[in-house]
Amino acid sequence: MIEIIITNYLAENLNVPVFNEHQENEPDSFVLIDRTGGTKKNYLKTATIAFQSYAESKYKASLLNEELKQTIEKIEELPEISGVHLNSDYDYTDVQTKRYRYQAVYDINYY
Predict the structure, then answer these.
(1) Number of H helices and number of E strands within the chain?
(2) 67: domain range?
(3) Residue 32 backbone phi and psi in degrees, to 5
(4) Segments in 1-111 forming alpha helices (H)
(5) 24 phi and psi, to 5 degrees?
(6) Model confidence, pTM
């Protein structure tokens, strides 16, 4: 699964934990990965992946989001990845839990 490849890559290259689902005892700062869709055309697969950067302040969440974007845009160095395209990027503070987060959504082409 492409999610495992991306999670492992980020875990090796970011200084915060990376999860595919919420944990019971989450740290103040972490990245949550969620696949929101995907397509296949001419044998090339594309996954739409939402990356949520959580931190204890809006400023720190925005910094983590920028670090995440710089890191994910280098993932093309992996042989399984053929393209990375930023779809959208925005403040995504959780109003119910009052947790600060930013979300970057990427379309990632892979084999």
Answers:
(1) 2, 5
(2) 2-110
(3) -115, 130
(4) 2-13, 58-72
(5) -65, -50
(6) 0.95
